[in-house]
Each structure stands twice: as C-alpha cells, then as structure tokens.
Amino acid sequence: MGTHNQTWVREFILLGLSSDWDTQICLFVLFSITYMVTVLGNFLIVLLIRLDSRLHTPMYFFLTNLSLVDVSYATSIVPQMLVHFLAKCKVISYVSCAAQLFFSLGLGGIEFVLLAVMAYDRYVAVCDPLRYLVIMHVGLCTRLAITCWVSGSINSLMQTAITFQLPMCTNNFVDHISCEILAVIRLACVDTTSNEVAIMVSSIVLLMIPFCLVLLSYIKIISTILKIQSTEGRKKAFQTCASHLTVVVLCYGMTIFTYIQPDSSPSVLQEKLISVFYAILMPVLNPVIYSIRNKEVKGAWQKLLGQLSGLMSKLAS
C-alpha cells in the first residue's frame, strides 16, 4: 500500500456504547453511581485492612493490591467514558489514547497474575497450614506483588509501543468505549499479523498460564479438603477460599468464555461488553464479595463500626 494512504493521526473518535442521547444520559447516571461505589468500596477495604491488625496477613496484603488494581483500572476508563456520554464529539487525543491503552492493558494483566498469586496463597493456607506464615513471609509476598506489577507493566509497554508505531488509516473512528488494543489495531493501514501474534503470546503468558496455575492450585486444594474427615473442618477450609474462588470464576470465566470459541473471534459488541464488565462490574463486585463471603472482614467491619459508634456517643454526650 502506498505511503500516501498512511498517516499518523493526531486524535481518535470513540463511538462508545450508544449514539442515542437518552440512552447515554441513563448510562452516565448508572456508571457514575457505580464508579463512586467502586472507589468508596475499595478504599474502605484498604482502610479496613490497614486499621485492623487481625487482617495484617498475606491474604489481605494481596487483597489490598487487588483493590488498588481495581480502582486504577476503573479510573483508566470510566471517567473518560462519563465525559464522552455528555459530549457531542467523543474525541480523545493520540497521546491520551496511548496512555489509556497502556494503563488499562497493564492493570488488566496485573490482575490476572495477582489472582494466580492469591490462589497460591490459598493453596499454602489449606494444604500446609502449619507452615503458612513461614512460607508466605513478608519478603516472598513483596516479591510476588512486585512480580505482578512489573510483568503486567512490561507487557503493556511492549504492546502499546508496537500498536502505536502502526501507521493509521485516515479513518480515526474507534468502535469501542475506550482505546482497546484490538479496536486500535483495526485502524492500521498495514498487515497486523505480527501484532496479533504478540497479543496471542501475551494472552498465553498473562492469562492462560496464570489460569492454569489457579486451576492446579484449586485441584490441590479440593483434593486436600476432601481428605479432611470432619464436616466442620471441610467447611472451614472451603470458606478460606470461597471469596477468591468467586472472583476467579468471574474474572477468568468471562474472558475465556468469550475468546475461546470454535467458530469465531469475539464481535465488537462482545469486546465492548467485556470492557464494561471489567471496568464497571468487577471493581465494584470484588469488595462486596470479600465483605459478604469473609467472616474476618465482616468481623473487622463490626469492630470498626462499633468503635465509630462509641466515638460518636462520646462526642454527643
């Protein structure tokens, strides 16, 4: 293709979820409320873990990281999307688009690896409880967390660099809610086979390998739980994993169900719905799941609320 048909665009126009004004207003209200609940819920989880010494354990250290990832991921997409719901022209600059792709892609990768690390933590807690604190010491937990953040960031940096070095066609309309990598690549004027291979490789490294590690961990966990003779013991062992397992099923399940299809690749609508799921629903569901399904977190909430109630009573008297 001749170079006269190729150009470096300065801005993109995001088509979003809908062009109907009334629908956009409804989505603006709904997503605004959800985003505020996401930020507040995850902030409260982090605050609770910091304030309650009983939650200063490896599991809640990783949960703190998960909450930070969730809030950051939502923030990389939702505020811009809310602004565009109220704008006639949904323009995003070239640099802002690249930054959004980098942060959303990086944080998504970090979350998948982090869930695998949390699965290993639950494996040690159930399968080797007597040595749990010896194995999951502060140094190891810190190194594992750093590995999650670094691996996701490096992958994102590489993917963003090779995506935005592509010459774009004069059509700068991105049919998505954000600068999602597949949507941006579709605008390229050159063969993108190498980019698609790179995406496939990174998906294997940051999605399928962590998923296999999670699967292996839970096979070991379930095998150990089934060997426990008392019903109460099995119930207690399962409860230590219930919250994490729920999040894993939701997080990995949506991606694997959508992308691993024998007949075709996911449609543009499916890609948009996946982005909405991870940017809007998952960040708000995680603190709810860990609060409802976890006795330690509920106990910490009750303790904190009791202290606040006592403080208010003293101030009122």
UniProtKB/TrEMBL annotation:
Q: Where are the transmembrane segments?
A: 27-48, 60-79, 91-120, 132-152, 197-219, 240-261, 273-292
Q: Which domain of life is it from?
A: Eukaryota
Extract the InterPro entries matched here. Answer: GPCR_Rhodpsn, GPCR_Rhodpsn_7TM, Olfact_rcpt
Q: Where in the cell is it found?
A: Cell membrane
**Chain ranges of the G-protein coupled receptors family 1 profile domain:** 41-290
Cell membrane is among the record's keywords: yes
Q: How does it sit in the membrane?
A: Multi-pass membrane protein
Q: Which residues form the signal peptide?
A: none
**Does this entry carry the keyword Nuclease?**
no
**Main location (coarse class):** membrane
Sorted alphabetically, the keyword list is:
Cell membrane, G-protein coupled receptor, Membrane, Olfaction, Receptor, Sensory transduction, Transducer, Transmembrane, Transmembrane helix
Q: Which family does it belong to?
A: Belongs to the G-protein coupled receptor 1 family.
Q: What does this protein do?
A: Putative odorant or sperm cell receptor.
State the PANTHER family in the record. OLFACTORY RECEPTOR
| Protein's UniProt name | Olfactory receptor
Organism of origin: Ceratotherium simum simum
